[in-house]
Structures are given as structure tokens and as C-alpha cells.
Amino acid sequence: MYDQDADVIVIGSGGGGAVAAKELAEKGLKVLVLEAGPFYGNKKWENPNSERGGEWSSSYEDLDVGIYKKIYNSYENNMNDVVSGVFRFGPSDRRRAPWHRIMKQKGDIWQVSGVGGTTQHYWSQSPRAFPAAVDGIWPISYRELIPYYEKAEATLPVQFSPTTPKEELFYYGAKKAGWDLIPTLNVVTPGYRPNPNAILRANEHLMDPNYSMEQLHEMEGCTLRGHCVNGCTTGPTVDKIAKRSTLVSYIPLALKTGNVAIRPNSFTIKILTDHDPQGGLRATGVRFRDTWTGEIGELTAKAVVLAAGCIESPRLWLNSELPYNGWVGRGLTNHCFDWVGGVFDEKDLMSIMGLPAVYPYMGHTSGARVDIPGTGIFQVSCLSPGLMSFLTYGFSEAGYDALNPPEPGAPWNIHGRVVGPQLKELMLDYSRTMTMLLLTDDEVRYSNRVEVDPLLKDENGPIPLIHYTPSPKTLQRRDKLARYAAETLQAAGAKKIIRSDLPFAFLLHLESTMRMGFVVDTNCEAYQVKRLFIADNSVHFNGIGGPNPTLTTQALATRTADILANKYFDQPIVTA
Amino acid sequence: MHPAKSYAAIADPQTVATFRALVAAIVPNTPALAVYGAEQTAGAVDLHVDEYMIWELDHTLALMFGIELTIFPLSAPTAMLLNSGAVQFLASGQAQYAPNSSLWGTSPFAALAAADRIRVLAMLEQLNFDLGAVPPPYRDDGGFVVFIIDYLNRGTMFGFYSEWSAYGTTRLNTPTRRRLEYFPIGWRQVGYPGVSLGYRALRGFMLTIVREGGESIIV
Description:
The structure holds 2 protein chains of 2 kinds.
Chain A: E1 6-11, H1 17-26, E2 31-34, H2 65-71, H3 76-80, E3 102-103, E4 107-109, H4 142-155, E5 159-160, H5 165-176, E6 191-194, E7 196-197, H6 213-217, H7 250-256, E8 260-263, E9 266-275, E10 281-290, E11 296-306, H8 309-319, E12 338-343, H9 346-353, E13 368-372, E14 376-380, H10 385-393, E15 414-415, H11 421-428, E16 433-440, E17 449-458, E18 461-467, H12 472-492, E19 496-499, E20 505-507, E21 532-534, H13 550-569
Helix pairs in contact in A: 1-7, 1-13, 4-13, 5-12
Chain B: H1 7-10, H2 13-26, H3 49-58, E1 62-65, E2 68-71, H4 75-91, H5 101-104, H6 108-111, H7 114-125, H8 142-161, H9 185-190, E3 209-212, E4 215-218
Antiparallel strand pairs in B: 1-2, 3-4
């Protein structure tokens, strides 16, 4: 039918790659998607973690919600253990070790392989960038992004979070601490609001006792079951699952076009190039490795979209021996997170909400936020006990609270790790504890980077080595956010306040390792390799001011698909 | 990966003793908390979290060695790191309690009082010791020591307060063969009701995005 395997090959099927695949396929282009990890919820892979199964899926009819729900069992260790979890960065075969990345500092990398990528366990937060972090700073304007934001928001779709007990308590504290409601998607002033989340609106019958919870769970609409991070299963079919990871949002839409084939269990190890007759290098295809058999395959296309994430995209560039560019892998931003929690007395909760607990396990994993352009965000974020215990009490840049307690007058009673009998006493108060994730407006530094180790390799080539140290300005902003969060908890009546002081290299919101204007142009096409486009967080120019980056990646991937189809396939640009 | 049933048996006694001492210092058995219910006494050793940590460390690192992908088990060198740390800690006069001499031969780290074991971890993460005296892959690699000491804390907590221990007799199987055998004790201790299909917890909507005819408004 055509002299190449495809019009476009997309490397990676996470937050950006799935979007690019769907958008390109809807324009009639033939698209192949390569994904290193498993495809959950697909008839071609009934036991995706223990058997090889099929090779390609190209039909919407392959999707199977029964298989999906069997694997996504929502148990926190089974799902989120970084060594052996369903959601880990590693091969589909769970008898095998994860894929290693070298980090010579405290921290952890919270990324996931598999169709849907890290959106499988993300909390669905879909805010837009702060306009002030884009305008006059990025090589494109915020206004240029707006139509693409709107398209991605309508497609996912994005909706403001409902109020459950923990959001009610958060709003109560935020109002008392002096923050105003900001009823907007374009944040230009500080204030509080529900999270714009890619989660279907709460089931309209949820509060009607005539519907059993078993019935509601099989219907369309969120049931506030609180398992966003451990994998959502509410919904009648794969494409109607309440939490809109790209596995259940963009991937089914891509398959519906009939123009997309997805190959999981396929780790891309090289981007293939040749010299264009008009001069210059251009991408012509990829070489990949089957993670079950070790067999090597090659595919060709007229264009390649790289969307392997902020660590693997630069790794693949470097391992493909593409031209030297001093910004490949550089300028890594991470929102330099922190985590602040408050423990409440039952009587105070009764007087605020008429309820005896915070119920951290109910509702969206994170449903409300305070946005502060120029500084960052703090958002109520509550997890199941295993994840909550280590984030609140076990994971710290600051060492042990008992050996190095907070300075007098600090707005928190506990700073750093808590172990021993005190840990167990604090965990007894789990259901009366409200925790918050803090996301800092992180300054871009050239020294923060992803490179490849000169000696160490795995089966996919030289492995990534990651280094992240925040700037003094980033740390000042983070401290300011910790104080704001503590004030909000205090205003709500918290009896004990804990600042975890998370390790700087707790890597969640990686951005800008293949920056626009440095590695790619404003079309997100690589300066040095024509027909190679990048469609993941790595093309962001900075950390977008602190808002969670996925929606911006999805908007940009939509725009990149438009531009690619227009430039190389004469398709008119329709979105803008 | 290692065959499931034999896995617990292959770790050497020093490694086992060291990891039991580690997890007991982080999540101890607490008889005093029995006033809040009998289940509150159970600590990490009661739930076999030492085995969880050994399993995790032995299954996390795979690299090419020659032309073969090779697993590098990390539990034994990590136990040696803790024991070397304990020896250096005691030698520098920092211990606040006398060590238990009957355990010294098996594991110096285990011989220390729980509070002193935490001080050893703090000393190691501050790189306040002779990095040349610890085994590879930690020897002269302070960055990796700092990473792993932090992991030992959060890994123990995740093992204890997640459902891992409730995999019971299947807990050391490969993950697809683990089966829950009872309700997790860590979850009972904290009042977490477990995996749920949903909650009737809706208390309204602060804002809503309404999309009509290609336009979106906020109400």
C-alpha cells in the first residue's frame, strides 16, 4: 500500500505519545506506536505480566475491560511497588528486575512503563501552565496554546474535582488563611480552586441508596473510590474508565480510527537516520528490541515522533548517536516537591464538617489546590497507608526529626523522618491526617541533567544517569510554599504539623530535557534531525511555573501533530 | 528471579539478622500501644518486613555483565554496609547504649540498641564514616550510600503499611503468583478500610466546566 511501514512512528504511548498517535491517525495518517512496557486491558495480552502474548494491536475491539480490571486490582503494593509493581518502569515480565537508572543522591523516580505510561498512576491533574511562566519566556505564546488546551480538555475530558471531606477541610483552611476563590482555568492571580482533573464527573446516582456500590462501579462516572494513584477501575468499558489515563482516553480513540497499530513490549534502542538529498540529517525509522524474546526489529516511516519521557528521550538521542547538542538531557526541572501534613482532633473535624475524620482514602487522590503564580502550588493529596507512611514519615532530605528537631518558632512540629514508636502513634491518626503535595516553580539549571553512563548498560544500551540539585531561588520558593501549607493547616485547626522535606530528587514532574528553542524548534521538530518531532514533557521550555505538566504536554502534542501533518503530509491545520 | 519457596532460606544469617534489626528500629513491636487494640503491638518483624526488604534489594538491579544481563543482589552488601557502619559508630564513641555482646558476632548492627541503629543510619546518610571500609558497590560511592539509606526507611514503611505482609505464605513468590490471604494488619492498625469500589462521600461541587457548542464556561 505504501513503500514504508508507516507514515509516522511514535516512540512511547504515555501522556504525549498517545495524544500524537490519535491526532495523526484522525488526519488519516498511518501510525505505528512502539511501547516498551505492557498493554493492560487488551485481548491480545490476557496475562501481560507473565506471558508474551501477541505482537500488535490495531483494533478497538481488542480492548477488554475484564482483563483490565483483573490486573488493576488497586492494592497499593501490587500496583505501585517500584521494584515489582504493575506500575513500575520495567519489562512486562514481573519475574524480571526493573530497568535501572543511576541516581547518586536521595530520591526516587516515579515513572511507569506500559501503554498509557506514567498517566496510569498519575493523579489526573490537568491544570494549564501559569501564563506568566510562558509569555515572554517560551519561544511561543500562551495564547497560541489555548486552542490546543481546549481541545485536550474536551477530549480527556477535564472537569473540576468534586468536594469530598478532605477538599471541604482544605477549602475551610484556605479561606481562613486568606486565599480567594479563583474560578478560572487561566491562573493569573493567587487563590484556591478545585483541581481541574481528567476524571469523569461523579456518577449522578452515587448518593442514591437504590444503586448498590457494585452497580455504580460498573457504570460511567467517578465513584470517589480514592484509588487514582493505585489504578482506577470504575467504568463499564475500557474507554469509559473514570480516571482518564491515556490508556483509557486517547488510546481507544486512536484505535477507533483504524489507522493505528500499537506494539507493546518493544523498547526502541535506536533512531535511524539518513541524509536528505537537500542536505541534512532526517529520521527514517527506528530499531527496537522485543522485551520478551530479545529479538531486534526495524521499522521505517516518513517521520518519527519521540515521546519516551524526559529520561528516555535524551537517552535514546544519545544512544542513537544523533548529532551533538549541548542541551540534550540538560535543563531538567522537577518542581522540587515537598510534602506537608496535619493531624486533626475529632472534635474539631466535627465542628467544621460534622464528620469525625478526614477520610484521606475517599474522593480524588488530589482534589483541591492553592495556585500562586511566581511561587508554585500546594494541593491536598491523600494516599493509601503504605504510600502515605513513606511520603509523610519516611522520605526526607532532612534526616530524622528526633535527631534534628525543628528550630523554635517553626510552623511545623515535626521536620523529617519519624521512626520507632512515634511513627506508629502518628499512623494511628491516619484517618484524621490531611496531607498536601507542594509543587515549586522550579528554575531551569543547565547542570541538572540526564546523561548516559559511560560504562554501565542494560539490554537496551547505556543506562541513564540523573542529577538534580535545585537552585537557591527554587529552594526559597519551596520554603515559602511549606509555610503557606502549614498556615492553611493551622487555620483549619491541625493539632500537629509535619513537614517531610522530601528529597530534591523525588522525580515526578520531569520537564525540559529537550527544550524548545534549544533542541527542538517552535514546531517541536529537532533542529539537527529533520522529521524527528518530540512530544513529551521534555520539550517544555521550563517547569511551566509549577502546575502539573501533563495537560501542557497533551496540548503541545496536539499542536505538534497538526504541524507535522501539515508540513510533511499536506494536511491543513485545523485546531488553531 | 529466584524460585519462590526457597528464597527465604538462601539469605545468609548475618543478612537476615541485620535486616530484622533494621526494620524493628523503624517499625517496632509496641506492647504499650495494646491499649488501642491488640493488633497495635505488631511491628515490622512480626509481619516479616525484613524478608520484604531482602527480596526488594535482591531483585532491583540488573545490568549487562559481559554479554549477559545479570542480577546483582544488594541485600548482603547492604547488610555489610550497616554492620561496617555499626562498627565505626561504636569505635567513634557515639553509642548511647551498650551493645548486646551475644549478637555482636552475628551482626554488629543488630547488637546495637534500636535508637543507636537509627543513629548509625543518620551517620551513614551524612557520609560521616570511612567510605573505603564498606563493601562494593557502596565503597567510595557516597551518592549510592545516601540513596540506599533513604530507601531503607521508606521501603520498610511501604512494606509494613501496604498489603505486602497479607500475601502470607505466597509473600516471597514472584508478584503474579502472590495471593492475599487475609486483611493486612498494617491497614487494620491505621483504620484503612481497604480497597473500595466507591464511597458515598460527595459533598457538592465548588465549580463546574460546562461545554456547549465548542465553548466552555465555568459555573
